[in-house]
User: Fold this.
Amino acid sequence: NTATRPSQNITTNETGSPIVNPTEDSRVSLFMRKFEDEVLQRDAKFNDLGSEDPRYLALDWILNNDQMNLGLDSMNLNQRYVLALIAFSLDSKAWGAIEEGSVIGNKEVDGKSTWLSSIDECSWYNVSCTGGLVTGIQLGETKTEFDSISAPLI
Assistant:
């Protein structure tokens, strides 16, 4: 289980599936629709996911904890969501605990920030970017490179 607590804007029903409160602003619905249309695959819908599902936790982080507060039109929004999804999928407590000068394996963290931090995701540890777009992620000893992560991945 992750340490993330349920959001103020999204609650869960008795089965644990998230539902949008009727009194919340339309921002939540707009973000949900954007990620459902542009990122999630297999017609996945947030209202069908459990509150501990990494896709839901990444949405909650974007809406309630991400200090960048990106708008729907930001070119970085989808890739930031996908990186948050990776972090929650791997359920690692270390995503928020990496500091400059830390040693991970035999590599010192130098000039990179923690994942799920308030700075641009291209400055996150082991994330490679070209022109502001994520082009690679190094997880462990393996580096994964992408042409673009704006296409549906999940």
